[in-house]
Design a protein that fits this description.
alpha/beta; Rossmann fold; GMP Synthetase, Chain A, domain 3; 2 domains; five-stranded mixed sheet; 12 helices; 28% helix
Length: 468
C-alpha cells in the first residue's frame, strides 16, 4: 500500500482540491485518479519511466504501480545504449505479478515489489534494487511524523522527478493528501515565483539549490517568510548556506538527514526557527522513527561509542536487495543489520557521518574522509563552499587536494592553511588548494569529487591553482 488507496480516498473526500502542479499545470485529486485509472490498461507488468518533469509524470507513475505492477525509473539524460541495456536486463530479471487491462487503480500486496530503483551512473550499468509497497508505506509514516507534513502544506521539489529525492516527495504528498509542486526544470526565478504566488510552505531540495535560492532571494528581496519547512538531502549543510537560508526563510525549520536509496531514512535533525546555527560538525541527528542504528566493524562486531565503522541499520524501510549489480559489498547484512558502506560513529545517541568508504583517501597510510575536510574548509571565513578529493601520488599513494569557492574577493592558500590549523589534524589537511568559479556538480545538483579531479587534470578554466 504505497499511495494508490490514498489517491482514491482524497479524490472521494475532496475531488476538486489540487493534488499536483507541474510548471503551472494543475491536476485535482479527481483528475489524478481518473487519468491514472485510464492509463492502467496500457501499463505493462514492468514499466520503464524515463521522462522529464511534466503533468503526465505522476499519472503514468501511479498507473505503472497499480495492482502487482512494477516501475523502473530511469534518468532520461542517460545514453540510449544504457537505456537499452537496462531494459534488456529488466526483461531477464524482473518477476512481476500477472496483470490485466481490467485491473483497477489499486495497490498490490504489501510485500510485493512495486519500485525498481537504479543507482545513478553514466559510465557503467547502474545497480538495480527493489522496494516493496510496505517498505514505502512505513517510510511515509516515518517521514510524515519526522518532518511534520500536514495536508494543508504545499510542497515544492524543484528537481527532476526521476531523482529518488523528488520521486519520494511526490509519493509522500500523495500519501498524505498534501499538494505537490515541481517545475519542468530547475530555475531560480521560477522557484521564487512559486514561493511568492502559490503559497509554498515546504521545500525539498539539495544544498546547492538552497544556497542559490537563498542568496539570490535575499538580493532580490524575495519574501520566503511563508516557508515553514526546508528539507535538504545529498550532503551536510555548510555554514554559509545555513546562514543565508535562515535569513531568507526566517520562519522555516531546516531539516537535514542521512539516508540511502537502499536503506531509506536513517537519521536526521531539524533546526527550528530562532535556534542558534550549528554548522561545521559531522553530526546528522538521531535515528528516524522506527529505525535502529549501530556501528559495526567489518566482522559484524559492535563498536563502542565514538569508534568509527560501518553505519548499520535495522528497520522495516530497508529495500529487498538487488536485481543485479550486487558485488557483496554494496548492501551488506550483519544478522539483519544493513549497511551500504558509509562510515561514521555514534556519540551521545547522535550519528556522525564520515563518508563513503569508496570516497576515503588513503594518504601516507592514513585514512582521510573528504567530508571532514570539506566541513572544516567551509567553516573558514571567505569560503563559500568546498570540495576535497584524493589525487594519485607516487610518494603518498594519494594526496588530499581541495577546491574552494571564495565567498567574496580572493583567498590564498596561506589563509586556508591558517584556518585549518586549529580544526583539522595535520595529516588530514590538503596538500594543494584550488580556487573554483563554481562547484563541480552533476546535472542533479550533487557535488562531484571526480569532476574536481577532471577539472584539475585538464586545467579547466573553472579551476585555478592557489599559491601562497
Amino acid at each position: 500500500m504505497p499511495f494508490l488507496d490514498k489517491i482514491q480516498r482524497w479524490a472521494n473526500e475532496r475531488p476538486d482540491n489540487t493534488a499536483v502542479v507541474v510548471a503551472g499545470r494543475r491536476l485535482s485529486w479527481a483528475d489524478l485518479r481518473d487519468s491514472a485509472t485510464g492509463a492502467v490498461p496500457a501499463s505493462a507488468g514492468v514499466t520503464v519511466l524515463a521522462e522529464t518533469n511534466s503533468i503526465d509524470f505522476p499519472v503514468r507513475f501511479a498507473a505503472a504501480v497499480a495492482g502487482g505492477r512494477q516501475c523502473a525509473v530511469l534518468d532520461p539524460a542517460w545514453p540510449t545504449a544504457l537505456h537499452e541495456e537496462i531494459v534488456q536486463r529488466l526483461e531477464e530479471s524482473a518477476q512481476p505479478f500477472p496483470v490485466s487491462g481490467d485491473d483497477p487503480l489499486a495497490d498490490g500486496p504489501p510485500d510485493s515489489t512495486f519500485l525498481i530503483g537504479l543507482t545513478s551512473g553514466t559510465t557503467s550499468v547502474p545497480k538495480a534494487f527493489t522496494r516493496s509497497r510496505k517498505s514505502w508505506q512505513r517510510s511515509f509514516e516515518a517521514s510524515i511524523e519526522f518532518f511534520g507534513l500536514r495536508p494543508d502544506d504545499v510542497t515544492l521539489a524543484p528537481g527532476p522527478l526521476v531523482s529518488s529525492l523528488n520521486l519520494y516527495a511526490l509519493a509522500e504528498c500523495l500519501y498524505a493528501g498534501s499538494e505537490f509542486q515541481t517545475l519542468e526544470s530547475f530555475d531560480v526565478g521560477d522557484v521564487h515565483a512559486a514561493i511568492t504566488h502559490d503559497g509554498v510552505t515546504r521545500l525539498v531540495l539539495v544544498p546547492t539549490m538552497l544556497r542559490l535560492l537563498s542568496e539570490r532571494g535575499l538580493t532580490g528581496c524575495v519574501d520566503a517568510s511563508g516557508v515553514k519547512t526546508i528539507i535538504c538531502a545529498g550532503s551536510k549543510l555548510d555554514a554559509r548556506t545555513l546562514e543565508a537560508a535562515r535569513r531568507w526563510a526566517p520562519n522555516a525549520t531546516i531539516f537535514e538527514y542521512y539516508g540511502a536509496s537502499e536503506l531509506s531514512f536513517v537519521s536526521g535533525a531539524g533546526l527550528a526557527a530562532g535556534e542558534p546555527l550549528d554548522a561545521g560538525g559531522t553530526g546528522i541527528g538521531h535515528p528516524f522513527p522506527g529505525v535502529e542504528v549501530r556501528i559495526l566493524d567489518d566482522d559484524g562486531s559492535e563498536l563502542t561509542a565514538g569508534e568509527a565503522g560501518n553505519i548499520c541499520v535495522r528497520s522495516g524501510m530497508v529495500s529487498n536487495g538487488y536485481l543485479w549489480g550486487d558485488d557483496g559489498q554494496a548492501l551488506r547484512s550483519f544478522d539483519g543489520w544493513f549497511t551500504v558502506g558509509d562510515q561514521g560513529y555514534l556519540a551521545d545517541g547522535e550519528l556522525h557521518i564520515l563518508g563513503r568508504r569508496s570516497d576515503m583517501i588513503l594518504t601516507s597510510g592514513k585514512n582521510v574522509y573528504p567530508h571532514e575536510v570539506e566541513l572544516a574548509l567551509a567553516s573558514i571565513p571567505g569560503v563559500a563552499a568546498a570540495v576535497a578529493a584524493g589525487m594519485a601520488d607516487d610518494l603518498r599513494g594519494q594526496r588530499v587536494v581541495a577546491g574552494v569557492v571564495p565567498s567574496h574577493g580572493g583567498i590564498t592558500a596561506t589563509q586556508l592553511k591558517a584556518g585549518l590549523e586549529s580544526i583539522l589534524p595535520r595529516d588530514k589537511r590538503p596538500h594543494q588548494y584550488f580556487a573554483l568559479s563554481e562547484l563541480p556538480t552533476t546535472d542533479r545538483g550533487k557535488v562531484s569529487r571526480n569532476m574536481l579531479l577532471e577539472w584539475i587534470g585538464s586545467r579547466d578554466q573553472r579551476v585555478r591553482h592557489l599559491e601562497r
